[in-house]
UniProtKB/TrEMBL annotation:
Top-rank lineage group of the source organism: Bacteria
Keywords, in A-Z order: Hydrolase, Zinc
Name of protein: M20/M25/M40 family metallo-hydrolase
Biological source species: Tissierella carlieri
InterPro entries recorded: ArgE/DapE_CS, Peptidase_M20, Peptidase_M20A, Uncharacterised_RocB
C-alpha cells in the first residue's frame, strides 16, 4: 500500500523546524515537549499512557529529554519489535549571520537566501519549489516527523501489525549522544517488562548527492564508525632568539596534521565502499598569552572514520604516523640547523632530540610501574574530581587535561607524543547479510524500495555503510567486546566522564538501516530537504518495510 502522507508529514516537519533546538541549549527540551504534545493528542496514548515516555537524559550536564513511543500490534501475538529512531537537535546558526533570527523559519528563509546570491544551484532549488529550507529540516527533523506520522498511523491501525514499533526521538546527537545512550535504558526496561524481541532499527538521518550530477536517492545498510585519535605533544621551550635551542611542539603537531589530514592511505574499505580520510578538528598549543618563549606543549585531534578497522587497528596506524612525524621533524630540524650554521659561520652539532611516542595505555603503565599505586590512585581521583567540579567541560578538553596532569609525573621530561582517544565512540555496524535478522531486514527494504520506485522520479539506490556519524552506532556492534579493550585502555576519560555502554547495546544488538531524508548542504546555511522524496517516498519505504517485517 502507498500512503498519501505528504501534507501531514510536511506540516509536522514545519512545526518541528520552528522550534530552535540547537544542541546544548534549552531548545532541545522545548522540541521534546512539542513532540510529546503531538503524541499526547492521539487517542492511543490517552488509552495507553504507559507506552509513552518523555525521558530525561542521564549523566548529562544540562536538562534535556528524549521522547519514546510504542504502538503494539493486534494482528497477532508476536513479540517482534522494530525500532524507529531519529534526532531533533540541530547544529548552531551563527553561519546565518545577519539573518540567523530566521534560520528556523521555512516560510521566510528562501527569499532571504536568494538575496545573498549563494549560487545558481541554490537559486534554482528555491525557484523550483521542491525544497524546504531551514536549519534542522534535512538533518533531521523531517525524519522524526515521518516517524511521528507512522506512529500516528499505526496507532489508528494496530491491526496491520503482528508485532510492535517503538519510535525514539532523541536529543544530543550532534554532540555526545546522551540521547541515544539514555534511550538504551528504556529499551532494556521495556524489553523485560513487555517481553519484547528487538529485530531491527530504522534510522531516518539525512542523505545527500555525492556529486553535482548525482540524482540517486540513497538507503544505507549499516553505518560508518568514528573515533577521535588525539595527540598530546610536549616540546622543549626556548627563547625565540635561540630558536634552535628548543623543540617547538607546534611543529610536531603540524607535521602530524600533514601526515593525517585527508591522507587516502588512512581510508578504510569494506564491501567495495571507502571511508573519507581523516581530517583535523583541532590543533592548538596551551599558551594563554603572548610571550617570546616557544610553547611547552600542544595537542590536536582528528576525525577518523572506519568500516572494518577496530580501535586497535586505528591506534596502530596513527602511532605509525606519530613516529613518522617525529622522525621527519628531527630530520628537518637538523637539516635546517646545519644550513643555518653554514650560512651564519657557526659550528654545527647534531641536535639532541630523539623520537618518543606512547599510547596512553603505554604511558599510563610506565608511570604506574615507576610510581606504583600512588600514581594510579592520584590520576583516578584527579579525573573523578575534575568531572565533579566541571561537569559541563567538553569531553575532548577533559581528556587532554587528564593527560596533561599525568605528564607532571613523568620522570623523563624530554619531548614526547602521547596518543589517546578523546571522544564518544561511534561503533561501526557492518551488514554482511549472514544473520537471519539481517537477511530479513535487507530483503524487506529491497522489496519496499522496488515498490516505491514506481512512485519516485529518481533512482533509489542502496549502499552498505551510512557515511555520516549517527545514533545507529548505539543499536549494535560489529566489534567484539575484547577489541574494545584497546578503546577503554586508551581513553583518559574512561570511568570518570565516559563509559561506552557495551552491555546496554548488546541488550538491543539489531541490524540497522538508514531510510532517511534527502536534500543538500547539511550543516550549511543552505540546508534544504527535497519535499516529495522525504515526505512521501521515504515515509512509504519505511511504512512498507515495517509491514513486511511485522506481517
Amino acid at each position: 500500500m502507498y500512503l498519501n502522507c505528504y501534507d501531514e508529514v510536511k506540516k509536522i516537519t514545519e512545526d518541528l523546524i520552528r522550534v530552535p533546538s540547537i544542541v546544548k541549549t534549552s531548545g532541545e527540551k522545548e522540541c521534546a515537549k512539542k513532540i510529546m504534545e503531538f503524541y499526547n493528542d492521539l487517542s492511543y496514548f490517552k488509552d495507553n499512557p504507559e507506552y509513552l515516555l518523555m525521558q530525561q537524559t542521564e549523566n548529562d550536564e544540562i536538562e534535556r529529554y528524549n521522547v519514546i513511543a510504542m504502538v503494539r500490534g493486534t494482528k497477532g501475538e508476536s513479540r517482534r519489535t522494530l525500532l524507529l529512531m531519529g534526532h531533533f537537535d540541530t547544529v548552531g546558526v551563527d553561519d546565518f549571520g545577519s539573518i540567523k533570527e530566521h534560520a528556523f523559519n521555512p516560510d521566510i528563509l528562501p527569499e532571504l537566501l536568494k538575496k545573498l546570491n549563494l549560487g545558481d544551484d541554490v537559486n534554482k532549488d528555491i525557484d523550483s519549489g521542491e525544497y524546504m529550507f531551514g536549519r534542522g529540516g534535512l538533518d533531521m527533523k523531517a525524519g522524526v516527523a515521518s516517524h511521528m506520522y507512522l506512529i500516528k498511523y499505526f496507532s489508528e491501525h494496530p491491526e496491520e501489525l503482528d508485532g510492535n514499533i517503538i519510535a525514539m526521538a532523541e536529543c544530543d546527537e550532534e554532540d555526545n549522544s546522551h540521547g541515544a545512550i539514555s534511550c538504551l535504558k528504556v529499551l532494556k526496561e521495556w524489553k523485560e517488562k513487555y517481553s519484547l524481541e528487538y529485530i531491527s532499527a530504522i534510522n531516518a538521518d539525512y542523505s545527500t548527492p555525492y556529486h553535482e550530477k548525482d540524482e540517486n536517492r540513497y538507503v544505507y545498510y549499516g553505518t560508518i564508525g568514528k573515533m577521535l585519535p588525539s595527540f598530546y605533544v610536549t616540546g622543549k621551550e626556548t627563547h625565540v632568539g635561540q630558536a634552535f635551542g628548543g623543540l617547538d611542539p607546534n611543529l610536531i603537531v603540524a607535521e602530524i596534521t600533514r601526515l593525517m589530514d585527508l591522507n587516502p592511505d588512512l581510508c578504510d574499505e569494506a564491501g567495495g565502499e571507502v571511508t573519507i580520510p581523516p581530517i583535523s578538528l583541532k590543533q592548538s598549543d596551551f599558551k594563554d598569552i603572548y610571550t617570546v618563549q616557544t610553547a611547552i606543549s600542544a595537542y590536536s585531534y582528528y576525525n577518523f572514520f572506519v568500516h572494518r578497522m577496530s580501535p586497535e587497528d586505528v591506534m596502530n596506524k596513527v602511532k605509525e604516523k606519530a613516529v613518522e612525524a617525529f622522525d621527519n621533524v628531527i630530520e628537518y630540524l637538523n637539516h635546517s640547523y646545519k644550513r643555518f650554521c653554514e650560512i651564519g659561520g657557526h659550528v654545527y652539532t647534531e641536535l639532541p632530540w630523539e623520537t618518543r611516542v606512547y599510547t596512553w595505555d603505554e604511558f599510563y603503565n610506565e608511570l604506574a610501574t615507576i610510581h606504583g599505586d600512588r600514581f594510579k590512585i592520584y590520576i583516578h581521583n584527579f579525573a573523578k574530581e575534575l568531572n565533579e567540579k566541571n561537569p559541563a567541560m567538553d569531553l575532548r578538553k577533559f581528556s587532554v587535561t587528564v593527560v596533561e596532569e599525568a605528564w607532571k609525573w613523568a620522570v623523563d621530561k624530554s619531548p614526547a607524543i602521547i596518543i589517546y582517544f578523546s571522544s564518544t565512540f561511534c561503533a561501526r555496524i557492518e551488514m554482511l547479510g549472514e544473520r537471519p535478522r539481517e537477511k530479513a531486514l535487507m530483503s524487506s527494504v529491497e522489496e519496499s524500495i522496488k515498490f516505491v520506485q514506481d512512485y519516485s522520479d529518481k533512482p533509489i539506490v542502496t549502499k552498505m555503510f551510512y557515511p555520516f556519524i549517527s545514533d545507529m552506532s548505539f543499536m549494535g556492534m560489529s566489534d567484539s567486546r575484547e577489541s574494545l579493550k584497546v578503546l577503554e585502555n586508551n581513553m583518559p576519560a574512561w570511568g570518570s566522564k565516559y563509559n561506552h555502554p557495551i552491555d546496554e547495546i548488546l541488550e538491543v544488538d539489531v541490524p540497522v538501516v538508514n531510510i532517511g531524508t534527502y536534500g543538500k548542504d547539511g550543516h550549511k546555511i543552505t540546508e534544504r530537504l527535497h519535499m516529495r522524496y522525504t515526505f512521501e517516498n521515504m515515509t512509504n519505504i519505511t511504512y512498507n518495510t515495517i509491514k513486511r517485517l511485522l506481517d
